[in-house]
Model the fold of this input.
Amino acid sequence: MLPKVLSDKNWEVGHQMIFYLVILLVIATFNGIYTNYINSLPFSWNNYWWIISRTFVLGGIPIAFITVLDYKQKVNFNTNQASNILKKKKKLLEDSEDTTHQISTDLKNETFSFNENDFNYTIAVGNYIDMCSLDENKLKKVTYRITLSSFEMQLAETSNLIRCHRSYLVNLKKVENISGNAQGLKLELKNQSEIVPVSRKYIPIVKQFFIKNP
Done:
């Protein structure tokens, strides 16, 4: 219902708290309806607010504590993950061999090609992708009609272009720095202001890449 708010990239502690409070509100509402039903009581706003207040007191405090604790644990865990990866990644990796990828889009007979060493990252935008790469030493973003999954499937297995998020695919050879937050990792790329997220699901894949390419 709210894909932008609930995405890994935008999800914050405040969103999680609101989400849980909405759940508490729903629980309290149905609890009030059920209580009135089994006791054959008419609806009363006073009774409704009494149930709401008690539910929030009993549920809100432990939820707030658990949410903050969970947030800190995730931040610490992912920060340690970033630190461990950086230990494996001694320096900015050298560019790979001059590999050119030929990609077929979802439009009939349309293809495009790009050099892997020029590629920085691509982001999914519905059934399209925005691909950011170097063009004559300048960063350029181009849109193609193709899903990120289809784009990923057409890459060579030996490629350094790795899926790191539901919406992102990145050239790990371009990574300059790695940091952690509650959502996962954040990749800083060479000559690129955009921060590329790594969701928790893909952290082992990114970590394994740098173990194999120290």
